[in-house]
Amino acid sequence: MNKVKLKVFNIKYVMICILFTIICILTSFFISSNSNVFKSYYVNQLLGTNSTKGLMYMIGSENRYFAEEFHKEKGRASLESFLLSLSTNINVNDLRSLLTRELPNMNQFYSEILIAGEGTDYTNIPEESSIPLENIQDKGTAVKHPKSEKENNSNTQNNGENKVFIYHTHSWESFIPLIPGATKPDDASSTNNEVNITFVGNYLKQKLEEKGIGVSHDTTNMRDFLRNKNLNWAQSYKGSRQILQDKLAQDKNIMFPMDLHRDDARKNITTKNINGKNYARLYFILGRENPSFEKNKKIVTAINSYLDEKYYGLSRGIFIKDRKSGNGVYNQDLSPNALLIEMGGVDNTPEELYASVDALVEAFSHYYNEVVKKNN
């Protein structure tokens, strides 16, 4: 009996030593790498799930009742499969993990389609693309904005309170028609707020204010902001998180943070003609790792449903992303009403974008008036 106990103890001891050694080696490798890409972001991506499994595995080996609920939800993995997952990121119960690092764009299949818009399936699911910060230049042709109707609108009272905060995690995302000489998606990036997604945010602010909804709009040059903070593209949401946290701390009236982006897809996917008018299609992203996921899903689903009813085909749908297919949280844990909206694609024109913003404002103001004002 003593020999059996000693053998079990030795196995547990060896397992703990192996786990600790692997974590130390991998962490040291990533942190000491010369490239900023291999920093804490990827260490977190790598160890986030596996470290929890390892901890629960060890606790469960001592007291199986303690980890019973965890294993019911996640499944009970063997020591061999856990160590394989930790060292190679291969999950023996998920064939996608065998292919995701070998086949281009395979990681997009980790995304989940909550609600599919017209024509949306796993062959055209949105995927985040990266760009080195040094490749982002100040370029583009200024955009002429439509004249504001705010001065002529008698229903624009908002009591001086800003309820919406618009910001841009990737403020450099621009549009090919506004960049002289641009022909491909990689060309559509600029720090010029007259041609990047910021000008769409300006128009969104204008139209919401015409509906009587107070708006604050952050126009930070995120390329320079990230550089000054010693952050890289992969840490963009860490940078915008600081901006959002500061704003929420300064203004307690903010209820709806909106992170406005531009997708990389081409014209045939991002444009929809409705009643003879072209619209830049939009879609919504939800972070699966967000503790307030269900609350955020409620507002996104409501707005998307309105768009489907009034402007069918405008929305490409609602997509759920975890850390394998994106950031996983997208700062949505900071507010139960946080929105991440992708407006149009690299080929869309200002007119198409403005048309979509008008529809989005109609949908959002309907939700705002039906839910927020009634509750207050």
TrEMBL record:
Which InterPro entries does the record match to this protein? Spore_II_P
Indicate yes or no for the key word Transmembrane helix: yes
Quote the SUPFAM superfamilies the UniProt record gives.
Zn-dependent exopeptidases (SSF53187)
Which Pfam families does this chain map to? SpoIIP
Region Disordered: start-end pairs = 129-160
Name the UniProt key words of this record, in alphabetical order. Answer: Membrane, Transmembrane, Transmembrane helix
Q: Where are the transmembrane segments?
A: 12-31
| Name of this protein | Stage II sporulation protein P
